[in-house]
Prior knowledge:
By secondary structure, the protein is α+β, with helices and mostly antiparallel strands. The protein contains 13 helices and 19 strands. The longest helix has 39 residues. The protein is elongated and about 95 Å long. The two termini are 36 Å apart.
Amino acid sequence: xxxxxxxxxxxxxxxxxxxxxxxxxxxxxxxxxxxxxxxxxxxxxxxxxxxxxxxxxxxxxxxxxxxxxxxxxxxxxxxxxxxxxxxxxxxxxxxxxxxxxxxxxxxxxxxxxxxxxxxxxxxxxxxxxxxxxxxxxxxxxxxxxxxxxxxxxxxxxxxxxxxxxxxxxxxxxxxxxxxxxxxxxxxxxxxxxxxxxxxxxxxxxxxxxxxxxxxxxxxxxxxxxxxxxxxxxxxxxxxxxxxxxxxxxxxxxxxxxxxxxxxxxxxxxxxxxxxxxxxxxxxxxxxxxxxxxxxxxxxxxxxxxxxxxxxxxxxxxxxxxxxxxxxxxxxxxxxxxxxxxxxxxxxxxxxxxxxxxxxxxxxxxxxxxxxxxxxxxxxxxxxxxxxxxxxxxxxxxxxxxxxxxxxxxxxxxxxxxxxxxxxxxxxxxxxxxxxxxxxxxxxxxxxxxxxxxxxxxxxxxxxxxxxxxxxxxxxxxxxxxxxxxxxxxxxxxxxxx
Length: 497
């Protein structure tokens, strides 16, 4: 289950990265047609692809994909390119070994490495969050250790005027701190505007600063920054997430400037740019703290100044914006759909006769399988078989079990069908790991019954029922668990119905 969540995360990361790169290209080519606010919120929207599995919406929109959406990623066999490579590697390695070599050695090492993925992802995310929290706690303590609340009439008067202009009703206090050198908005539940104690501003500059920071407050930019930190922590392994977060921070500041400068004349804009230059030389590195920065690095600040000094009226065209939105949504829909269509098509091929290798006990080792997931009562149809999860209780079994699961691979003759009979198999996996189950005809390495290749999760009990009567032939139930010993029991019944 955890491994499959990792593959889901990798899929979301891959799709979101592709969308981000496409968006970067469009913005670079058509930037003059868009406002900074439009680009900012578009970045935020695209970032949700790192966090939300939008493919679920596509799955529910398409009848053929409902089973994939309901049972999760494991119902597909090639969920991501990474997973496909891993599976092909395992299969190729097993086929290179002797026909009756157990699935151990290299394959076990690869399987063990894959099983460690969830712990690596969790450890990386945990370390990222710990670092961020530590940096912010240290910053908070250092900044407010000697910072002072101010009730300066000039400062509070300009703040009151700006609050009235912006329609902000909440009281926002102002602090002076010698440890910072650039104004910023700090705090989510108790927002405060922090000013540098060693910097003096004119009444007009105070007004410009407060308008900028109150714009952050009204748009909940700090909350969005927290969301981006969480996305960054979840996808700590993806360098494009760091770039996306940086772009969002920069366009956040540009969009705030864009909100307040249209009401300024040329002289006021020039003085606003002088204010930015004034704080540039006092700026600190505020990359990871959860607050809104008023300044930035020099090259980025030059871009801000260029935007501020442009004409009041943007050159944007509504048709260009609509076209770009349509392109991005199409790319998003097509990319997620193709990823899962490819996976679904692969799973449909499971009705074919895949290659196989056998263990010394003759147990069939399938190349492809899906996991059975769901609460008690869940039913999954594959081919002519229906899998249903039942309670893990011996009383749910027939009176007597036909076999006890042990070792790491087994095969059992269900019995020679006399024809026109339906079969039901009870399987209880009492071990701590998955076991792979399949049904073959004629021999343990014979023809695979379509839809029978599945993984049964640890500590679950399932029944396998045939929808159509079986032909007169011998059928075998085959189990393998790699290098780990199995535990549980199996029972078989035939009926005429």
